[in-house]
Amino acid sequence: MSEYIVLFHGDLGSGERLQADTPWKRLQHVVFIPGLFHLKMASAEAIWRTFLQPLSARDDNSALMRDIAILRPRETGIYGSKPGFRRMHELITVEVNKDLDAYAASEPLFDDLKAVADQLAQNYVADHRLRQTRSRNHSQRDEQYENGLLLNKYFLLYEELSYALNSGDIGHVETCIVAWILIFKATGKHKYATQMTDFLYNIHFTYPEGLRKAIRYNILVNPTGKKGKFQAVDWCVELNNLFIKVINGGKSSNHTVDRIILESPLWNMLHSNVTNQHAEADMSQTFKQLCKYITAHSPHEQKLGRHSKYSVPDLLSKGQELLDKMEDAADVEGVEDQLKATLEDLLGE
């Protein structure tokens, strides 16, 4: 045993193995910290489970799958089955409106920006009024418009989480986690909901002040030292594992532990002048086609009486209801897919 604390970053599988053994064997001084890169992967998968996994969610003209058919026409099957983190991340964070550059060049006042943001948030993002709207008669509702409000809400929550992580603002990250706990609960990702709840509880009520500070100061790192380039520790671990075990691990008879040990101190030097960053693709025509399609079907304009084949659930309300029920652990235990990071996922970051 040791008088010092060791911070341990990893996915939920690593944390469960660490916490399942006896206090002596698991080394009581080791504190498990859920990896925030895997948290982000889980958030992207929760959005996929909500908008792309159900077959009926793909049928409406305003469905997310229709946008994918324009942006990635050859990958609709992949998005419908198991797209992985990189594709979902690029889909959620895609920048369609290039007119923002021209708007920024006009140097709008800060008060003007706040007014525009308030208008967008009040009119195009789901809030407490959605429950009342959905209680009306079908002829007085626009079900596709309601789905669009929820889509905007969940995408903005993901964008907020990404921005907080990239900025290294751990206080902001902790605030974002609260909403995602409810979303995880509602989408069947109970392990993530439980682990992130325990993490927030421990960081705010259990750990002493010194340990809280140590965790918060070490949960994100900035390998490049550049603004907005913070990364979660588990992202760095996964990237290092891929370079050592896959990229530089050798093949056939060279695929040995000795080879990995030999290559491990060299990969940084070998790749110091090599980049995986490709030139940005020219998507201008694709974006024009997408904007034309969105304009034609008006997903953000109310048309009373418009029906939808799929009703997007209010995940925050559903998650809160599930938490309030205080279900038995046996009722929520299940086999969840372990989120495995691939090279494409890491480069997508």
Written description of the protein model:
This protein is mostly helical. Helix content is 59%, strand content 4%. The chain is built from 19 helices and four strands. It has helices at residues 12-20, 36-51, 64-71, 76-81, 84-92, 99-105, 110-124, 129-134, 143-167, 170-186, 190-206, 209-218, 233-247, 257-263, 267-270, 284-297, 315-325, 329-332, 343-348; strands spanning 6-10, 30-34, 220-221, 231-232. The protein has a two-stranded parallel sheet. Strands 3-4 form a two-stranded antiparallel sheet. Helix 9 (143-167) runs antiparallel to helix 10. The mean pLDDT is 84.
Keywords:
single chain, 349 residues
Helix-strand blueprint:
Layout: E1 6-10, H1 12-20, E2 30-34, H2 36-51, H3 64-71, H4 76-81, H5 84-92, H6 99-105, H7 110-124, H8 129-134, H9 143-167, H10 170-186, H11 190-206, H12 209-218, E3 220-221, E4 231-232, H13 233-247, H14 257-263, H15 267-270, H16 284-297, H17 315-325, H18 329-332, H19 343-348
Parallel strand pairs: 1-2
Antiparallel strand pairs: 3-4
Helix pairs in contact: 2-5, 2-9, 9-10, 10-11, 10-17
* Backbone structural class: mainly alpha
Helix content: 55-70%
- The strand count comes to 4
N- and C-termini, Cα separation = 37 Å
Give the count of helical stretches.
Answer: 19
Please trace the helix and strand order, writing H or E for each element.
Answer: EHEHHHHHHHHHHHEEHHHHHHH
| Global mean pLDDT | 84
Q: What fraction strand?
A: under 5%
Going across the major beta sheet, what is the strand order?
A: 1-2
Tell me about the largest β-sheet.
2 strands, parallel
What overall form do the CA principal axes indicate?
globular
Point out poorly predicted stretches: none
- Please compute the radius of gyration using only Cα atoms: 23 Å
